[in-house]
Amino acid sequence: MGTKIDHVLLVDDDFDDNYIHKMVISSTGLVKEVALAKDGSEALQVLEELWQKPHEPIRPNIIFLDINMPKVNGWEVLNALSEMGEAAYRSMVVMLSTSQNPADQQKAKTYPFVHGYLNKPLTEEALAEIVQAYLEKYHADT
Questions:
Q1: What average pLDDT does the structure give for the chain?
Q2: Rounded CA gap, 120 and 106, in Å?
Q3: Which own/partner pairs from 51-57 qualify as long-range (CB within 8 Å, at least 24 positions apart)?
Q4: What global pTM score does this model have?
């Protein structure tokens, strides 16, 4: 796969997970830029700033979102994205969590902009599949 995507946003309160996942993403060469948010509150602030600028060239193509975080957790982020309407559909959200609870996986499926649920850690293979799915969904006619 020679095509890169522009931007990934990692949302996780665990510094080590963010570090490892950023290294995995960078090592693949599939993503031009990786941004980090240490919790859901910071992620929503970043997204709102980006999405309020209709001609902003950097929008997260993919958002990797943890569930269990302080302040604003992953479910609260998803609820806030739902309230943002069309802007939420500009990014592919993938849940990236340690939770193997089937109820969490089912709940994630109820959000139409969530395109997957992965257990940590993120692997190069899983990232390649997600990037390919993103490209097929959003760039099928390019």
A1: 89
A2: 17
A3: 51/84, 51/87, 51/90, 57/6
A4: 0.91
